[in-house]
Amino acid sequence: MSRVVAARLLARIVALQRTQDTVHLCLTGGGTANAMYERLAELADGSELDASKLQLWWGNEHFVPATDPERNSLQAISRLARTVSIKSADTHMMAAQDGRKDSQESAAEYEEELGETLFDITLLGIGKDGHVASIFPGHPSFEPTSRAVIGVEDSPKSPTERISLTIPTLNRGNEMWIMATGEGKADAVARALDGDETIPAGHVHGRTATLWYLDAGAAAGLPAQYSCTF
């Protein structure tokens, strides 16, 4: 699945770059995403991708020191930068813990930097509990807010302090690509596609398209009409 998504993402970015000056891509973290970034770096080498037209953003981040290997941004960039030369000014990482009072301060900084930016493509994973980014079911992070970016405290998943785009911010992007692998995600995937409003994954969508990329395990709970092959 990671190879399929990487190939389609590269092709989509190149196609968008033919018609617009800048492509805004919102990245996600996690093992599935990191495997895809590995493949994307391989495919990008020698391709038509123009890194100078690419702006990278993140949907969520762990509020840890800048050099902590758990940072989603470091995990993604360390893979992509092998073949994709993106300027630091075009890489919009969320502020790390260093020198910040708390995750709320970091969130406020990112909200200001983000402004009214609209993502061309937003990448998301989905947790076994139906969480997306760092928005968790039954948690204050899931409560309605007018903020575009929030600090998340007492996260049910380590690390306990995080920064996240809110669901309305995620949804203001054009295309949303949601990735999931493994049978452990099957229940959450089925609930989300059934429109279960009790989980964050049941609320996310793109303005023009919402694409789900699933392996057989993650799709195991879906009815037959969702079955497709690549």
Q: What's the structural blueprint in terms of helices and strands?
A:
Elements: H1 2-17, E1 23-27, H2 31-44, E2 54-58, E3 60-62, H3 72-80, H4 103-114, E4 121-125, E5 149-152, E6 162-165, H5 167-171, E7 175-180, H6 186-193, E8 209-214
Parallel strand pairs: 1-2, 1-4, 4-7, 7-8
Antiparallel strand pairs: 3-6, 5-6
Helix pairs in contact: 1-2, 2-3
What characteristics describe this protein?
single chain; 230 residues
Describe this entry's structure for a reader.
The protein has six helices and eight strands; from the N terminus they run αβαββααβββαβαβ. It is of the alpha/beta class and 230 residues long. The protein is globular, with a radius of gyration of 17 Å. The chain has a five-stranded parallel β-sheet. 28% of the residues lie in helices and 17% in strands.
Q: What would the principal axes of the Cα set say about the shape?
A: globular
SS-based class: alpha/beta
Main sheet attributes: strand count, strand direction, barrel closure: 5 strands, parallel
Poorly predicted segments: none
How helix-rich are the residues, as a percent range? 25-40%
N-end to C-end Cα span: 9 Å
